Amino acid sequence: MSKTGNTTISNSELESLREKELILQELQKTAKLGWWKVNFETHEIQCSDYVVDILGLKGNTLTTNQVLNLINEKYRQRVSANLPHLRNQNFYDEIFPIMTRFGEMWIHSKIGNRVIEEDGTITTIGYSKILEEEENILISKAREENQLKELMLRQYSLSQSLSKFLKNPDSDQVITDTLKEVLKQFDGDRTYIFKYDKKKDTQSCIYEATKPGVQPEIDTLQDMDSNHIGWWSKQILNNIPIIINHLDELPPEAETDRQVLARQNIASLLVIPLASSDGIWGYMGIDIVNRPRLWTHIDKEWFFAISNIINICIELRTSEREAREQQQYLQKLYDHIPIGYLHLQLIYDENGQPCDFKYLDSNPAFNRISGTPPNYFDGKNAKDFGIEDPESLLRLHNIVLQKQATESTRFMEKTGLQYRLTLYSPGENEVVALFTDITEQQKAIKALRHSEEALRNIYKNIPVGIEIYDKNGDLLDLNDIEAEMFGFNRKEDVLGVNLFKNPNLPADKLEELRQGKEIMFPLIYKFSKIDKVYYSTKYTGSKHLSVKGTCLYDTNHNVENYLLIVIDNTEAFENYRKIEEFETLFNNIAEFSKVGICRWNPLQKTFFGSDVWFYNLNQQPRHVQDIEDVHEFVCPEDTVKLQGFHQQVLEGKSREFADEVRVRVGQEWRWLRVRFKVKEYNPQNEIIEVIGLNIDITESKETEQHLLKAKLRAEESDRLKSAFLANMSHEIRTPLNAIVGFSALVAETENIEEREQYLSVIQKNNELLLQLISDILDLSKIEAGTFDISLAVFDVNNLCKEVICLHTMKLTTEDVTLSFEEHIPRCFIYSDRNRIAQILSNFINNALKFTEKGSIRLGYHVTGERIEFHVQDTGIGIPEENIGHVFERFVKLNSFIRGTGLGLPICKSIIEKLGGEIGVESTVGKGSRFWFSLPYNPTVESKEIDEQALFLPD
């Protein structure tokens, strides 16, 4: 076994390879044929064993010079000239004599293929055949005759094409005709020229000629992507021709290119790169459609020549066109340049002294500045115009001698223009005069000086401070306002301070300024921070400033200066603060008084309303255009009134409005007093200014209603008092009459039983009169506010038993029972014992008056921190409509029952004084239940109590 690289070859396979190699060597000897390979990087030629044997070489490698030395001297130069084509072309076909070890012999050499390695190395493989003497003579003679005829024919055609190109200005037509002639000579189907656009990386067909019956494709071959046919583009741009006898000759990496050619039915082609001084700009090619073509050496050489000639013609015409365009450009520049041009030639006498000068040429700008018609001076001498100034001639002569330009500013009286005259000598005895119109420039300079003066005045007197710093931040200059603003005695004292070290300026803003950004910010400038630290100032305290900073740039956009503009807002800030305080005060007053204000222009659809205006209308403050946009919650009836006024304002029929409107807030209505007044009426200028206010009068309305109710109650009370007084006079006279009458009877009678009976009547009327007077006194104390309460701890059960016992003795019938029922075994409270006894007695007395039979029950119960007493009877009851008036003063529901009607109102006042509540529940025919509740503390057990621990009424 044998190994070759990583492949293992068996002995049988190795023996087969050796046998094939021997056969190949024998065939080469028989055919007298050998191969060779040229490396253009090392300039070495590697040969087959047959070539080595024929030439008598010592090894398989030799240099190109060694090969050339073996060739016959007559043919050596031609072979040497064609040898470089092997590097760039795919064809080579030569017959020449060469010295062998058998003597001089004729060989026929042809190229086989060209290979470009991955590292860019180019190698060419070819073969050489030893010719028999007779074969060589016949082949050479026939070839030379055919080549001569073909060359003569093609040379004649080429000369005709060149002649047409030189005679015909239409180079496009000549090139197209030449391409057609090439088609005939090569029996081709399509010839073309492509041009590269290296910026777009595309290529386009600019010329094409086709054989009859072959479809032109120039229109479809525009702006083609060069990267799509990468192998093709790489070959052309590397100045390597593409010569293909058949598409199968294309290398594997040209598969995309092969597909593109196949779609055009191209079977064979010959393409030559076209180059200029700037490199490869395109290529010229010829296609053979639907059939292969074996390109001969003459074909290749001749097509090279044709392509080079066409390339030269195209470049020549391109240069001519560019030269023509340049000439036209220069002529337009000469005609339209704003600088006047005058070409002079000095004329000398026989002594070599200047005696005159001639006007050679002038341009329109000179005619405009001088006020002369075109060509007025051209070709004429100065003396023709009476110009004979020896000093001017001498000055021109010195310019010619010294070859130095001179400049001066002059005034042209004829045209009234100022101009700058430049004189220089371009050649021997010649002077060129350039006239530059500086009239507008002088005006601009004058205006600029005026502007500078104005700017200087502005800089000095503008009511804002200006500071200018250099690019390092050092202060260069400031105006007088700035010095006064910051308290400098002399601005020279602060020049040089650094902007970026000012402790009052915020660091972030200074950093933005460094970055080239424009800055603007408010600043509270505190002099305590900078005095004697940054600079000295006569000010103390602080100032409110507005600062704006920007960068100034040079022509290269580099920061050259920093500019700061400072506005003193201290006084304005104080005024604004006062206005703000006043506005705040006004808004607070408006909010406190619920007064809203507005301003409205119905023509311009502008409306302003204060916050209170919106709040009064149950709206959130917002921007609206029309006043009716805020009437969403206004009562519809009132909205109609407002809309009517608005319409009358537009029509000029009404100027004022005052009324009350209602606004819905939830489920309730809010009352507003609204007033409007037209302040300015000028509809011609779209001005109708209406001012208005609304005031929340809901509380006033409620107070008015309360006053009305109070008035009604007072009137009712007055009526009741009158009735009360009338009743009181009756109630007082009744017991007094009884007392007086029975007192007289007691004095007159001697019967003891009658006397006791009379004394009993007197006693009852005394008690009645006493109770009546007591009620009147209590009422007067309550109304005067001198009603006293005496608080103490007492036993509730003992009190109730005493009240029951007292009133049991007063019962006059057995049909009514009086009892103390619902209670707890032990109960003490801290309150006024006598007043509670008075209330219970009043409840029982009332029950006795209205209960003819049944029961009257006294009781109490405790619930949490409250104790509730009640007196329940089975009397006649109280109608439902009268229950609400039971505790009102001077109200007596039943005029047939004795009493003043003061008892229950007094009870109500006592209970409220003790911090309790009182009420009644009654059903007509079933009886009534009077009750009252008081605060209760279960810890109260004895008279020694801590009053702070008790629940005491206010």
Task: Characterise the protein shown here.
This protein has 954 residues and is of the alpha+beta class. The chain contains 23 helices and 36 strands. The strands form 8 sheets. The protein has a 6-stranded antiparallel β-sheet, sandwiched between helices. It has a 6-stranded antiparallel β-sheet with strand order 11-10-9-14-13-12, sandwiched between helices. Strand 1 (2-4) and strand 2 form a beta hairpin. Helix 6 (133-167) runs parallel beside helix 10 and helix 22 (833-850) runs antiparallel to helix 23 (903-913). It is elongated and about 210 Å long. It starts with a strand and ends in a 19-residue tail after the last strand. Mean pLDDT is 80; it is low at 942-954. InterPro entries: GAF, GAF-like_dom_sf, HATPase_C_sf, HATPase_dom, His_kinase_dom, HisK_dim/P_dom, HisK_dim/P_sf, PAS. Its EC number is 2.7.13.3. This is histidine kinase. It holds the Pfam family PAS_9. Keywords: Kinase, Phosphoprotein, Transferase, Two-component regulatory system.
- Give the end-to-end Cα distance, rounded to a whole number of Å: 129 Å
- Enumerate the strands of the largest sheet in spatial order, edge to edge or round the barrel: 5-4-3-8-7-6
Radius of gyration: 67 Å
- Figure out the total of helices: 23
Characterize the overall form: elongated
Sheet having the most strands: 6 strands, antiparallel
Q: Work out the number of β strands.
A: 36
Overall pLDDT metric: 80
- Strand-pairing-aware structural class: alpha+beta
Low-confidence stretches: 942-954
Helix content: 40-55%
Beta-strand content: 25-35%
